[in-house]
């Protein structure tokens, strides 16, 4: 199996990251790719820290998976929440679901709920690991295995960059890795509940993310390289 060879290589990369880039952390979004990485990190490099971002609007299925991860691997990942004052200020000015109204408002919501907490999670770290894959979206076709993240001033590793969706599912099924049950209901990419829908046969893997926007704007701001491919928008007033 191709994914078996790739998994062995990822294991070697993770060992090297744990050894040469400590303290390193894994940003676990609890998607399919990140469950593969969770399993591989716990096998090969358990010294790598693990965290997730709770935006306050995640699907219930995602919370259930958090508990499954703790039960399966015996570790509770760190959870980072958005600043309460920032969320309250945004909703008072723009409304609870303002992200539907414009791309700038949606990006501001993402900045408050995801980007700012990510910055806190990465503070004082030397490296972070993500589940980005080239196949996921047009904005991710240039994803490399490693790069320097100038936004956060640290190394960034994407060990699954060349994995296909078939590789990911092959690993998950072979090792009975827990995953979000929404994937069984045609949700290939998961985020906040109001910003994610199921996709139809033949649609892009990320068509269900921010489904009311055009494809070139569909990034949250957490990944600088991908944001460079997104058209510039006016700042939120």
Automatic annotation (TrEMBL):
Show the active-site residues.
220
Q: Which residues cross the membrane?
A: none
Q: Which SUPFAM superfamilies match?
A: Adenine nucleotide alpha hydrolases-like
Binding, [4Fe-4S] cluster: 109-110, 192, 195
> Localized where?
Cytoplasm
Q: Which InterPro entries match?
A: APS_reductase, PAPS/APS_Rdtase, PAPS_reduct_dom, Rossmann-like_a/b/a_fold
Free-text remark on how the cofactor is bound: Binds 1 [4Fe-4S] cluster per subunit.
Pathway-wise, it operates in:
Sulfur metabolism; hydrogen sulfide biosynthesis; sulfite from sulfate
Q: A GO BP term, please?
A: sulfate assimilation, phosphoadenylyl sulfate reduction by phosphoadenylyl-sulfate reductase (thioredoxin)
Q: What is its EC number?
A: 1.8.4.10
Q: Does the keyword Iron apply?
A: yes
Which Pfam families would you find in this protein's record? PAPS_reduct
A single GO molecular function term of this UniProt record: metal ion binding
Record-level GO cellular component terms: cytoplasm
Q: Superkingdom, according to UniProt?
A: Bacteria
Which PANTHER family does this entry report, sorted A to Z? 5'-ADENYLYLSULFATE REDUCTASE 1, CHLOROPLASTIC, 5'-ADENYLYLSULFATE REDUCTASE 3, CHLOROPLASTIC
This chain's function reads: Catalyzes the formation of sulfite from adenosine 5'-phosphosulfate (APS) using thioredoxin as an electron donor.
Q: Which family does it belong to?
A: Belongs to the PAPS reductase family. CysH subfamily.
Name of the protein in question: Adenosine 5'-phosphosulfate reductase
Tell me what gene encodes this. cysH
């Amino acid at each position: 199996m191709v994914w078996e060879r790739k998994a062995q290589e990822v294991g070697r990369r993770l060992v090297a990251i744990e050894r040469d880039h400590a303290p390193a952390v894994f940003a676990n979004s609890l998607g399919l790719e990140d469950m593969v990485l969770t399993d591989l990190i716990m096998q090969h490099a358990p010294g790598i820290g693990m965290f997730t971002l709770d935006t306050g609007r995640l699907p219930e299925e995602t919370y259930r998976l958090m508990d499954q991860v703790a039960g399966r691997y015996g570790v509770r990942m760190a959870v980072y929440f958005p600043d309460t004052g920032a969320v309250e200020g945004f909703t008072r000015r723009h409304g609870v679901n303002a992200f539907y109204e414009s791309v700038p408002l949606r990006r501001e919501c993402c900045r408050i709920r995801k980007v700012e907490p990510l910055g806190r999670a990465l503070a004082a770290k030397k490296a972070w690991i993500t589940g980005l894959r080239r196949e996921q979206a047009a904005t991710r076709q240039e994803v490399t295995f490693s790069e320097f993240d100038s936004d956060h001033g640290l190394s960034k590793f994407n060990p699954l960059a060349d994995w296909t969706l078939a590789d990911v599912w092959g690993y998950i099924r072979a090792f009975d890795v827990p995953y979000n049950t929404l994937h069984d209901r045609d949700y290939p990419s998961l985020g906040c509940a109001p910003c994610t829908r199921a996709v139809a046969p033949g649609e892009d893997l990320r068509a269900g993310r921010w489904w009311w926007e055009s494809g070139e704007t569909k990034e949250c701001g957490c990944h600088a390289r991908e944001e460079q491919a997104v058209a510039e928008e006016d700042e939120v007033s």
